[in-house]
Amino acid sequence: MAGEKILIVEDDLAFLRLLKEGLQAERYQVSTARDVFQARIEVKRAPPALMLLDVGLPDESGLDLCRELRAEPRTASLPILFVTGKKSLADKVLGLKLGGDDYLTKPFELPELLARVEALLRRSKGAGGAAESLAEGELRVDLAAHQAYLKGKPLKLWPKEFLLLEAFLRARNRMLTRQHLYEAVWRVPYDGNTRQVDFLVHRLRQRLGPYEDRIVGVRGLGYRFESR
After folding, report:
1. Class of CATH domain 5-126
2. Structure pTM?
């Protein structure tokens, strides 16, 4: 998704620079705003493909901006990823209920942010109705049909196993935390329960046959799917 425009709304200048440099290194076009007032101007001037939005901004809450953007037809489907220090479950639930597409709490590793950005951009592209598939060698995932294939034969996956495989293939070679995987599969804020993620990863490995060793654990952090 290189070349897509991303708007970062963040008042911490050092953190803003870090995000901007990380995204530009991946060849995204990046614009910035340090408060809601500036963000409104940027969105009106040239709507981005995705917004990274802090909650605690100096003039207004990022939650209010999210609610406002969702109410406008022009920005109703704009992907919004909250990037914030507000970590409570109540904050996450509220952010998602008000229209946020994803919620990432500080601190985090840059590869996880990039993986979430890529996933949201792919999801927004697929929302236009075009069939989309993901492939890795003889492993293929047909997103429109919600079916995975190995060597041309359908794989029998439970819905959550399918969503887990999709998350891995969208972020090949990038480490995904258990929190990211939990929220991508269960579609609710992470509650800290790592066992559910680990068990689901174990079950998916069993389904993948010769591809089971592609899912590699990153000790104490999460997992990645290795492309070879």
Report:
1. alpha beta
2. 0.61
